[in-house]
Amino acid sequence: MNIYAKTLKRDLQIAIRNPSSVLNPLLFFVISVSLFPLAISPEATTLTQIAAGIIWVACMLAVLLSLNALFHYDFENGVLEQMVISHHNLPLLILAKITAHWLLTGIPIILLSPILGSFLLLDTPAIQILMLTLLLATPSLSLIGSIGASLIVGIKNSGMLLALLILPLYIPILIFASSAVSQAQFGLEITGQLYFLATILVLSLISAPFVSSIALKISLE
């Protein structure tokens, strides 16, 4: 756990020194959500019906945009190769990097969601469910995204390839999360959706660091 804490601290310090890698996805998230009412309709009924989908699609794209920085800095400086050949547990090191990514991307998105939800005219119960789904699912987005980021770490200009690899895996999360928020607006039961999101989180937490470590070793050979 000592090496986990050190890796987490190091990644947070790197992000503080390079704030653009953190701020750009968050600005994209805010701007994209803000533009939807202008493009579709400012009517309250329309916005309320599509608000959950808007916020969740923007969240997924913002996380996807931030994934390029997950291993890129360490790859360019040769640190990633040292991590792979070191005696330390590689899945644990990767989990520390994923945790830093979630703290820098997922947490700000969760904190911004009530403001954007109010902007899209969501009521208070729906906003609370929105934050709950983001809390359950944004770690899964980071964990699953780490697999794709590790596969294309050595490829330049790989943003489109990363999207093709990861977006299909994000679709179940999008369906369950947006469905939970939409049904909460009508007072319907959402326990099933939350259980599915929690199950995806547990499975991702168990498998993603190990799959990412294998993918990194293959990519660096």
Would you write up a description of this structure?
By secondary structure, this protein is mostly helical. It is 86% helix and 0% strand. The longest helix is centred in the middle third of the chain and has 30 residues, at 90-119.
Question: How much helicity do the residues have?
Answer: over 70%
Computed Rg: 18 Å
Compute the separation of the termini in Å.
28 Å
Principal-axes geometry comes out as: elongated
**Biggest pleated-sheet summary:** none
Structural class: mainly alpha
How much beta, percentage-wise? under 5%
Work out the number of β strands: 0
Mean of residue pLDDT values: 86
Compute the number of helices.
Answer: 9
Low-confidence stretches: none
Order of helices and strands: HHHHHHHHH
For the record, the count of structural domains works out to 1
Task: State the main characteristics.
single chain; 221 residues; mainly alpha
